[in-house]
Request: fold
Amino acid sequence: MKEFQIEFNKLFSGLYRRCRFKGCIFPDKSTCSSKKIKAHSIQKSKILSHIADRGMVISGDIQKTIFTREFEQIGIRTASTFFGFCNHHDTVIFSEIENKDYIANQEQNFLYAYRACALEYGKKKEACCFYKASLNKFKNTPNELFFKSMLNGAILGLGDLSEAIDLFSNELIRPKSNRNFNTVNIKIYKLSYESLIAVNAFFIFHMIFKKIN
Reply:
């Protein structure tokens, strides 16, 4: 297992940059700017700076730590960043949460959910690329089944996230006055203290458990 982990880490280092998703998720490409920016999925000035120690935070990325399960210390300039939007759409779409204080209205919550979905969509695109290349590398080896399973899971996840992205996009391509932000149900849980942990995540549940009387 240790030898495989070392070999896997070497492979990961070579493929990570090649598979990095760099595009604009917003559906209207006619208004895209040419510059794809590295945006924060968790706001740097409003959130990360408050939990940082001398500009550093502890971060855990499952794609980087799939075997080691170790966290790493990184600067808040690069923490939680991803290439998911061009400069124009990142600025225009998220202005209500980037330039205004959080007041917990439906539009702001909708945009936070959209950003979390976009982040996970980009990661699944990267995962599909990575596991496909890994499967080719380890084909006809004892690890082939592992990467085949991981690739199948990533493909299924990407399909689910594509449907979720479409749900958000169908509203965001409308004129702002015609958008229905109530297509997303929001639950807010307030803590009685300031948390030192910040998370941005998006999950899709395939099973609904029914109570059996």
